[in-house]
Amino acid sequence: MSFRDVLWFAAAALRGHRLRTGLMLLAMAIGVASVVVLTALGEGARNYVEGRFTSLGTHLLIVLPGRSETKGGPPPLLGETPRDLTLDDALALHRSPAVDKVAPLVLGNAPVAWKQRDRDALVLGSTADLLPVRHLTLAQGQFLPETDPRRSPPVCVLGAKLRHELFGPSPALGEWVRLSEYRFRVIGVLAEQGRSIGVDLDEVVIIPVASAQRVFDAPSLFRILVSASSREMLARTKQDILDIIRSRHEGEDDITVITQDAVLATFDRILQALTLVVAGIAAISLIVAGILIMNVMLVAVTQRTTEIGLLKALGASSHTVLTLFLTEAGLLSLFGACLGLAVGQGTSWLFRQLVPEFPVQAPLWAIASALGIALVTSILFALLPARRAAQLDPVQALSQH
């Protein structure tokens, strides 16, 4: 039989048992669609996290007080606490030529009030450099003034949602709000920013860093955000930060510097592992579909014993019968995989329409793997019934009829 005859015979056999063919196509399609949709969600989560971090800038470094390290020996008799980061530490970082911007951060919660309206809000104390370092956008007014960070002018910038809740339709610029026991004049309003690294920037109050230290009576800094002059200068910037702080802290390495690349790499590894795990779980459904094909074809061999005997009586070899059954399994897996791929891609498209900021898209390796596993498992599981059909004796097969 020619290859064309084999394809025609296999297709005719599938059309002759529509219900059985439909069920096997459905099982294979569900398996492939599951792999495509789950990997698309995992890839979408990875791209979403990467995009959020990239929006902060590609050469950002974060300086934290304390150092992550493993120490040996007995514990000290007296308690040791990491040395605090101070505003002078932050200002000293400008000595490095690799540093472009430095934004010290003081963080806290405080009640914010205007006339009869008040609510609690997250307060960020920083400098004018916070605007370019965090890539913030203003909707109205201006950001913090570029003055000596040690000064504490009574001005503030409100997040978009906080400004709406406090002032409603009334203008906010130039008005005075009460923050804890102090009064601040509103000089700017942020455009809608959404959440960034767990902070809802639409509900924050940004004030000068010295003012925040006064409000919270805290001379130490929460973090220092440093922007390198270029992405290529990240390593040198990190080393300069360590050297400068060490020289100010009596030779102690008591800070941790995190680069954005390190944070991104960590999230990438975690989300990539999760994507592979869910893809592996979904791939189990493809194996189940392969087992279903094997069982159905075993029944088919029993039902088609006379047909197989007639083929052999007309001169078909065992190899030809084996090829016919494997071709049927191949066609089933191919059409089922294509149907599942269409369903999976359609579901991903629907996700993208409903949640545009979540870039759901199945990676090419997942699509290729799903199609490959579908074809391989179906043919492997079809080998047993195909060999059983090929080994039938034509005389005995026809005598059963």
UniProtKB/TrEMBL annotation:
The chain crosses the membrane at residues 21-42, 273-300, 321-344, 364-384. It is a multi-pass membrane protein. The keyword Flavoprotein does not apply. It is found in: Cell membrane. Residues 281-394 form the ABC3 transporter permease C-terminal domain. One of its GO terms (molecular function) is transmembrane transporter activity. InterPro entries: ABC3_permease_C (IPR003838), MacB_PCD (IPR025857), Macrolide_Exporter_MacB (IPR050250). Residues 21-242 form the MacB-like periplasmic core domain. Its main location: membrane. GO terms for cellular component: plasma membrane. Keywords: Cell membrane, Membrane, Transmembrane, Transmembrane helix. Belongs to the ABC-4 integral membrane protein family. PANTHER family: ABC TRANSPORTER PERMEASE YTRF (PTHR30572:SF4), MEMBRANE COMPONENT OF TRANSPORTER-RELATED (PTHR30572). This is ABC3 transporter permease protein domain-containing protein.
